[in-house]
Amino acid sequence: MRVYLDDERETPAGWVRAYWPEDVIRLLQSGNVVELSLDHDLGDDAHGTGYDVVVWIEEAVAVRGFIPPRIAVHSANPAARARMLRGIESIQRLSARDPTD
Length: 101
Prior knowledge:
Helix content is about 45%, strand content about 15%. The chain is built from three helices and four strands; from the N terminus they run ββαβαβα.
């Protein structure tokens, strides 16, 4: 499954639309997500942002050995995009480490 988190843009063909971080996390927990594309600003920061998904994945990889899907960021918010990309780099480092370390 390919999951597209966004509140405004049209969902690309072949992707499952999600509007909130908890929707994406629920789909990730199913184990069927192979690719994510994340927006940051979802219209209600109190309800969460795309960065919250990145944080959840990072913790799941570090603590529970979660295997992350491919992750892309399509946010137009430059500062948030950079922060999310740093989180994704951390996820990639964590998922590449030897579990016996």
